[in-house]
Design brief:
The chain has a 5-stranded parallel β-sheet with strand order 3-4-7-2-8, covered by helices on one side. Helix 13 packs across helix 14. It is globular and about 75 Å long. By secondary structure, it is an alpha/beta fold. The two termini are 15 Å apart. The structure holds adenosine-5'-triphosphate (ATP) and magnesium ion (MG). The site of magnesium ion has 4 residues, from helix 5.
Length: 367
């Protein structure tokens, strides 16, 4: 049986359900969303990202391997006066796929048309975009794993031979015509590379994964964003925000903005480590970037299922969260930091999770 060490900061599963204190309530109601979600929550968030998006490879922090490979590809393509090879970028949300694509277009000095797979519903949506491209242009397709079959099949010859096969007319009198396209670059971005069909994946000359960021890289990102937002922050203050950002620039920027709000309300001029600490505690983002739902999932596993193995559906039922949300939103980061394991018998909370949440009685230790 897992025993909770008594600690003023620790909350049991039952307590974790309700954020305590008036201040927390009002701040959470204000933001109205999960602070540590990496998803671009709304058009509002996307718009607020415009000013802080890095504009050049130099400004783009981290992802050293990716940058090295892309620099070579850019130099080679420019040397040959050709367009860049088709590129597929994949990785969890908020790591900088869209940002990198926009930078590539500006480094290559070409136009970039931006669309996303769900917007390409009818065949004419994609044909319209393709015929409007000029030599060397880039076409950025976000969420490319969500393309429908017909659109995907139109893309095959377009990517391979710069050719568009269109059917004109209906029934017996219909004819297929080929239209030649200018040499363009398709950039696809996806968070689910496994859902891409292999014919589509194979047509990309470059397939690159984005990684979670290190704390020092995120610290640099927070310092850079603070400068753009005209906010004073100390190095250690930035580091504190970086540590709680789940390896993700989008979350780092979002947390910085919330801490800035807090500083403003409290009439503090400079964000230092103490203020960052207090503000992030108020927002209920803990030292590892976990929020109360993350902690609820883990503490439920520990208290009600003895740490697991436990099935996803059982966790969902016990916590009142949707099982898909647990799987897609909460679990990836818990897996990444080693707080949760997936076994063929179900999910297991690890010794690290017990330690973080202040529980004794980790079963694995007994054997
Ligand atoms: N390397 C970086 N350096 C500095 N800031 C970055 C970097 N990468 C991303 N960001 C910041 O993080 C935000 C999110 O990045 P971006 O929109 O490119 O993520 P994404 O991978 O396309 O996410 P999604 O999968 O949700 O589309 C950007 O607004 C940008 O300011
Ligand atoms: Mg994006």
């Amino acid at each position: 049986m897992a025993i909770k060490r008594s600690s003023p900061n620790s909350k049991s599963a039952a307590q974790a359900k309700k954020p305590e204190g008036k201040k927390v309530d009002s701040f959470q109601a204000e933001s109205g969303k999960r602070l540590v979600s990496a998803n671009a929550e709304s058009k509002e968030t996307e718009r607020s990202e415009v000013g802080i998006r890095p504009q050049s490879l130099e400004e783009y922090i981290g992802q050293k391997e990716l940058k090295k490979i892309l620099k070579i590809a850019i130099a080679a393509a420019q040397g040959r006066k050709e367009s860049l090879d088709h590129l597929l970028l994949y990785g969890p949300p908020g790591l900088g796929k869209t940002t990198m694509s926009l930078i590539l277009a500006s480094e290559m000095g070409v136009n970039c048309k931006i669309t996303s797979a769900p917007a390409l519903e009818r065949p004419r949506d994609i044909t319209g975009l393709l015929v409007g491209l000029k030599e060397g242009d880039m076409l950025f397709v976000d969420e490319i794993h969500r393309l429908n079959r017909m659109t995907e099949e139109l893309l095959y010859p377009a990517m391979e031979d710069y050719r568009l096969d269109v059917t004109i007319g209906k029934g017996q009198s219909s004819k297929t015509r080929s239209i030649s396209l200018p040499k363009f670059t398709l950039i696809g971005a996806t968070t689910k590379v496994g859902s891409l069909s292999s014919p589509l994946r194979d047509r990309f000359g470059l397939v690159q994964r984005l990684r979670f960021y290190e704390t020092d890289e995120l610290t640099t990102i927070v310092l850079r964003t603070a400068k753009i937002l005209n906010t004073k922050i100390t190095e250690t203050g930035a580091q504190e925000i970086a540590c709680r950002s789940r390896g993700t620039p989008r979350i780092a920027n979002r947390l910085l903005k919330r801490v800035r709000d807090y500083a403003q309300v409290e009439k503090v001029d400079t964000i230092d480590v103490e203020l960052a600490n207090i503000a992030l505690d108020v927002f209920d983002v803990d030292k590892k970037g976990l929020d109360w739902t993350d902690r609820l999932v883990l503490s439920t596993m520990i208290e009600q299922f003895n740490g697991g193995p436990v099935g996803l559906e059982a966790i969902a039922a016990a916590t009142g969260e949707d099982s898909r949300t647990i799987e897609e939103v909460y679990e990836p980061y818990l897996l990444q930091i080693g707080y949760l394991n997936r076994t063929h018998r179900g999910r297991v909370a690890t010794a690290l999770a017990y330690e973080h949440l202040d529980y004794e009685g980790y079963q694995g230790k007994l054997f």
